[in-house]
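Exercise 3.2. Students should predict the tertiary structure of the chain below and write it as structure tokens, then compare their answer with the key that follows.

Predict this chain's 3D structure.
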Amino acid sequence: MNQFAKLTGRSYKLFEYYGHPEAERIIIIMGSGYGPVHEVTDYLNDRGEKIGYINVHLYRPFSVKHLIDAIPSSVERIAVLDRCKEPGAIGEPLYMDVVNALHKEWEYKMPRVIGGRYGLA
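Answer key:
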């Protein structure tokens, strides 16, 4: 990502957090769905909520360390929104990676994690 920034002048993180610094609820999402999530985050935070989201810029290879570093320690609930359907699986790919990362590296009270899908028409 550092090399990309040098070449293009645009800087991205693998997992980019946006929202309240002490968010209680966050969404983890990748792709075009982050735009509406960004607007809702601003709207709810302006009304006293403690909300945030993580926009996944690079999914594979998946970096557990970078994801964990992006999640505020105050988080109590996480919604992971995938843009695919895995018939017969116990969860969608991003959801499963987030749950596994939390179980492997999270040092705080374990947040409740739910999965969902968007953009499947």
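Discussion points: DSSP finds four helices and five strands in the chain. Residues 12-117 form a domain with the Rossmann fold fold (CATH 3.40.50.920).
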